[in-house]
Write the structure tokens for this entry.
Amino acid sequence: MQDYTGCEAVMIGREAMANPWIFSGRDREQVPPEEVRAFMREHLKRNIEFYGEVDGQRLFRKYVAQYLMMKRLMREERRDILSKKPPGGVSGGAG
């Protein structure tokens, strides 16, 4: 953006929370549910590694709603995503 417009800074808005794929130039509708699922699991895993299990899971909740707003995810898929634990032996209530 800076090269194209000559602006001095670029601000990323809250919408990037619901669509982190914007940084790869994709619209939210272009991201398959499997990729959303994998991304969420990695995000939760990193949150837990950084904040600890309890705080990591608690803080992750604000992102879950954003990730699951995808119209292509059916109710059963959302339930499946939320009911499974992330890889690597991470346990707890958010898995």
Q: What stands out?
A: Residues 5 and 18 are 25 Å apart (CA to CA). Residues 33-51 form the longest helix (19 residues). The chain has a mean pLDDT of 78.
